[in-house]
Design goal:
Oligomer: single chain
Number of helices: 19
Pfam family, one: UvrC_RNaseH_dom
Function: The UvrABC repair system catalyzes the recognition and processing of DNA lesions. UvrC both incises the 5' and 3' sides of the lesion. The N-terminal half is responsible for the 3' incision and the C-terminal half is responsible for the 5' incision.
InterPro entries: GIY-YIG_endonuc, GIY-YIG_endonuc_sf, GIY-YIG_UvrC_Cho, RuvA_2-like, UVR_dom, UVR_dom_sf, UvrABC_protein_C, UvrC
Radius of gyration: 30 Å
Largest sheet: 9 strands, mixed
Protein name: UvrABC system protein C
Distance between the termini: 40 Å
Strand content: 15-25%
Subcellular location: Cytoplasm
């Protein structure tokens, strides 16, 4: 413990608030909250901890704290700080999936769509659904029953959906707001449990069609009834009421926590969410933070009720998430909370040993790699690779591994600007220069180790830029490949020499994964560029020009050159609005040199 931390610990207040732990670079690596800051923060630097907490504490060289007036304020502030800084030790919900929803859009002529992006807009959302297949099957059923608009942009004339009686054809015929509102209400009623009445009505229509000897119509109605039964009524568990609830349970052991969430919609269990993660705070407060982040960060729509186990601070949670939170004490609701708790315990017991072993193996590989190179443990590794075919479309890519795991949100890809022809050394110089000029300019954290794909030449080029141009002193190694394009050796030092790595060791597997991943990412970016024709990519970049307008322009003008030379009138005659036509001409004539991409995040 350094003197700065000792001095700050001595004056910590005994009030609620949040604390922010920092590493040697000044980067915030963990954010927590407590109802008594003095006790919680001191606990990190006293007593025994498990391995994961020890690693966190070893990295802490300073901390800050913010006092709040209540636990509710502390919880909300913690959520905002985590969202702002994305600390690496706050792993809750980073990898969790989002569930699909059905949405009736708030447009003049609404559409029914499947989406995972829940927004505060004029649309109506229904779900979540267990998976995208279930959501699409339900949408397919509703499309047959209710003729809302199907197309993304209004066409010039009616399409096949109109002739199939699945759209009212607002593109060609007048459809009133009242008609649309009635259809939306029918869909809402259907998804809120009214499908049973719909099915009853369809059965009567099917019988009527049979009596009238309209067997084709009767068969169509029968298929719709069967579809309703298969989509809407095959549920795992039911309750007597129709209330939407989320039911939370959790279990913890040895620094790991498992949280289970049951989604009850219309009285039926449609899905569960399972999350397993390490934690560093009080278990109950960690569980509280998990639920708050579940709604505040992932935008899950609030159900009517949230059910939680005994000992959960209901008042604080209700103040943060603004919905009804209950601790059921008897009956079916209590049984469901206990079932969620039981499932969490079972999941933790089943997966704990595997995950713990994998965690230890990965961390040990990073530590061993540092020992082999005689450097501090390289928690953050940045690796570079170049890709081109005989100099065509040269690109480079950078991947980041944090504590031995790929950190895809930190990936970067580059178009090479200045190098002409297949010059791998100069390409490496350019990209390393661009990356670390930006790091210095934006005061970003430097890596603990830089890896270049290649041998002594690539290493020399990268080191020259780092040391002689930028004045950066970061360990750098090279990864050479054999004639089968597989990782053969790790090079390090000045002059570079082979590092003795056992090919069956975890640290060798680590550098192999890094090399394979950066190569994969560079190749995928190169293929992406080669797959785009210059014409297509240039037009794709223009706001307001989608696939339909691009085809229209190219069909009429034949080439981008002719579009550049056209006037606004000749473009607007194609049905393109004047503001968009003006944007097209400005964009094409201001970008004749097709400037290369800047450093940009990976989209994977």
């Amino acid at each position: 413990m350094n003197s700065t931390i000792k001095e700050k610990l001595a004056v910590l207040p005994d009030q609620p608030g949040c604390y922010l732990m920092k590493d040697k670079h000044g980067t915030i690596i963990y954010v927590g909250k407590s109802k008594v800051l003095k006790n919680r923060v001191r606990s990190y630097f006293t007593g025994a901890h498990d391995g994961k907490t020890q690693r966190l504490v070893r990295e802490i060289v300073n901390f800050e704290y913010i006092v709040t007036t209540s636990e509710i304020e502390a919880l909300i502030l913690e959520m905002n700080l985590i969202k702002k800084y994305d600390p690496k030790y706050n792993v809750l919900l980073k990898d969790d999936k989002t569930y699909p929803y059905l949405k009736v859009t708030g447009e003049r002529h609404p559409r029914l769509i499947v989406t995972r992006n829940v927004k505060k807009d004029k649309g109506k959302y229904f779900g979540p659904y267990p998976n995208v297949i279930a959501a699409r099957e339900t949408k397919k059923l509703l499309d047959r029953l209710y003729p809302l608009r199907k197309c993304n942009t209004m066409p010039d004339r009616v399409c096949l959906y109109y002739h199939m009686h699945q759209c009212l054809g607002p593109c060609e015929y007048k459809v009133t707001k009242q008609t649309n509102d009635e259809i939306v209400q029918q869909i809402t009623s259907f998804l809120n449990g009214g499908h049973k009445e719909i099915k009853k009505d369809l059965k009567q229509k099917m019988l009527d069609a049979s009596e009238e000897l309209d067997f084709e119509r009767a068969k169509e109605l029968r298929d719709q009834i069967e579809h309703i039964e298969s989509v809407m009524e095959q549920q795992k568990m039911t309750m007597n009421d129709q209330v939407d609830r989320d039911i939370f349970g959790y279990s913890y052991d040895k620094g790991w926590m498992c949280v289970q969430v049951f989604f009850i919609r219309q009285g039926k269990l449609i899905e569960r969410d399972v999350s397993l993660f390490p934690f560093f705070d009080d278990p109950e407060e960690t569980f509280l933070s998990y639920i708050a982040r579940f709604y505040l960060h992932q935008n899950h729509p609030y159900p009517k009720q949230v059910l939680v186990p005994v000992a959960t601070n209901v008042d604080v949670l209700e103040g943060a998430i603004d919905t009804k939170v209950m601790i059921p004490m008897r009956g079916r609701k209590k049984e469901l909370v206990e079932l969620a708790m039981k499932n969490a315990k079972i999941s933790l017991e089943e997966k704990f040993a595997l995950i713990e072993r994998d965690e230890e193996r990965t961390i040990k590989a990073v530590e061993s790699l540092g020992e082999k190179l005689h450097i501090e443990t390289p928690h953050r590794i940045e690796a570079f690779d170049n890709s081109n075919i005989q100099g065509a479309d040269p690109v480079s890519a950078m991947v980041v591994f944090t504590d031995g795991r790929a950190d895809k949100k930190e990936y970067r890809k580059y178009k090479v600007r200045d190098v002409k022809g297949p010059d791998d050394y100069e390409t490496m110089r350019e990209v390393v220069r661009r990356r670390y000029q930006r790091v210095l300019k934006e005061d970003l954290p430097l890596p603990d180790l830089i890896v270049v794909d290649g041998g002594k030449g690539q290493m020399s080029a990268a080191l020259d830029v780092l040391e002689n141009e930028l004045g950066i002193d970061v360990p750098l190694c090279g990864l050479a490949k054999d004639d089968k394009h597989k990782t053969s050796e790790l090079l390090y030092g000045d002059p570079p020499s082979t590092v003795d790595l056992d090919r069956k060791s975890q640290e060798f597997y680590l550098v192999q994964r890094i090399q394979d991943e950066v190569h994969r990412f560079a190749i995928s970016f190169h293929r992406q560029l080669r797959g785009k024709g210059a014409i297509q990519s240039e037009l794709d970049e223009i706001p307001g020009v989608g696939q339909k307008r691009r085809r229209l322009l190219l069909r009429h003008f034949k080439s981008v050159t002719e579009i550049k030379e056209a006037d606004i009138q000749s473009i607007t005659k194609l049905g393109i609005p004047e503001p968009v036509a003006n944007t097209i001409l400005i964009h094409l004539n201001d970008n004749q040199d097709d400037p290369d991409e800047q450093e940009e995040p990976a989209e994977e």
